[in-house]
Every structure is written in C-alpha cells, then in structure tokens.
C-alpha cells in the first residue's frame, strides 16, 4: 500500500466536511493553533481534500458567523483566528481528544443538575444527549452523573457545549451512586459502549496499515504528512465522539481504546514535522496588530 493510495481511498470514504477540517486545524497546536492565518493560506490547505476556494470561503464565513473564528482586515486581505469566546471550548475539546484512555476512578462522582428545570425541555434534551458522549448517565430527570478521575473537569464539559449549558456542578464522594454494584456491572447497564467499540475497531483496521507503511520507510511529502495527520485526526475524533471516556473500572477488560490510542499517537509523531513544514511552507508575515486579541465584532471576509 502506498501513502498516496491510503490518502485517496480515505479522503473519498470519509468525505470530510470543510468546517470539521478547519476546526481541527485551528485546534491542533502543531498546525495553526491560536495563530492567525491568511484566508488564501486556508484555501491552500483545504485544496488537497478536494475543496475549492468557494467552499473554503463559505465555511470560514460560517464559522465566523457562529463565533468560532474571528477575522481581521489588513488592507484588502483578511486573516482568521480562533475567536476569544471559543478558545476555552476548543481547548477543552482538544484535551478530551488527546487524553490517555487509561484513567482510574477516584471513587467520586461529578453531578450536573438542571436546578429548578431552568433549562427548557428541548434544550436540556439536546444537552443530555451531548453529555452522554462525555460520560454522563441520567440518575434522575434533571440530574446527570459521571464517575470522576484526576482529569475529569465538569467545567470543560460544559464549556465545550457552549452558552446554553447552564447547569450546577457538584462533586459527590463515595460509591452510593452505583447502589453497591461493582463498577463494571454498573458501566454495562448505564452506558451503551457498542458504538465506541465499533469506532475503535474500525480505526485500528483503517490506520494500522498506514503505520506499517510509515515504519517500513515510506516517507511522506510535507503535503502528504499534513493530509494524513488531518484525516487521522478526524477518524480519531469520531472514536472519541462516541466514547463516554469512563475510568478503567467501568470498562470491559477487552476494551480496544488503548491500542487505538497508541496507533493515533504513533501516526501523529510520524507526521508532525512534515505537516508543520507544509502549513508553514509559504510563510507570510502577519502584522503584530492582527495577532493581538481584540474584543470587537468580526469583520466579514473578502
């Protein structure tokens, strides 16, 4: 298998959305990260995924309208960077994406409470579904809970979901939430892990041949390294999206997350230098005035 074949097949099968690609590029500190990027550079970076200038401009404008990005004008050109209001949520999502899977339960629980039902039924139903992917199960109509570990942060979970997630956060000590049942038994009953298992197994099948090719001496070009890194990141994001990220005590013994995580980290390491080289292969100095955080409203890109 050649690297170009893997890229071609997986680009076609994954059909990545431009907004997802842009979010990943701006959240990866080894790529754009928090730095401003010229619009014409974003257009160049999107081209290998089959996205033309119009599609990229539309997606950038949409993310700006949504408050994820902000634009700065410099003459007739525009640069884009993560909007200050979106920084916390994007960083929380990045920490979750890259968190090691082998975490132990500290015996406590994080509770999120819709106090007084102040969040409307429709909004709460949406939040409850989203928080299920963060490891929360429903204990009562307005109470969600997840077992905590040293990396669990209820603030991160809510920050990632945006301004509608106004819930009270409590910590509860002890094992009374499980009703005395073993954690693994409670885990089987309270969380559906089938989708996450399928995603991890698919990721291993999809990306293991790529690691073998890289280990056997296939050296990617900078553009190939960049495309591989982004495609692998999107596939890994799908795994984490469906994984409640439970502590080990709540998981089955044959849980495939560790093997998949090791593969993900290996592929990032193999592509880091080349991907960075591609992102910065046409450096354009952005004036310092554009790099400073500014509170004003985003200007529409040209």
Question: Would you kindly provide a written description of the structure presented here, covering whatever features stand out?
Answer:
It comes from Rugamonas brunnea. Residues 191-280 form the Transcriptional repressor PaaX-like C-terminal domain. Residues 36-82 form the Transcriptional repressor PaaX-like N-terminal domain. This is Transcriptional regulator, PaaX family protein. InterPro entries: PaaX-like_N, PaaX_C, PaaX_trns_reg, WH-like_DNA-bd_sf. This protein has 302 residues and is an alpha+beta fold. It folds into three domains: 17-86 and 282-291, Arc Repressor Mutant, subunit A (Orthogonal Bundle); 108-173; 194-279, no CATH class. 52% of the residues lie in helices and 12% in strands. It has twelve helices and seven strands. It has helices at 3-14, 18-27, 39-46, 53-65, 84-98, 121-132, 154-161, 183-190, 194-215, 222-242, 257-279, 288-291, and strands at 37-38, 69-74, 77-82, 108-113, 137-140, 143-147, 168-173. The strands form two sheets. It has a four-stranded antiparallel β-sheet, covered by helices on one side. The protein has a three-stranded antiparallel β-sheet with strand order 1-3-2. Strand 2 (69-74) and strand 3 (77-82) form a beta hairpin. Helix 10 packs antiparallel against helix 11 (257-279). The radius of gyration is 21 Å and the shape is globular. It starts with a helix and ends in an 11-residue tail after the last helix. The model is unreliable at 284-302 (pLDDT under 50).
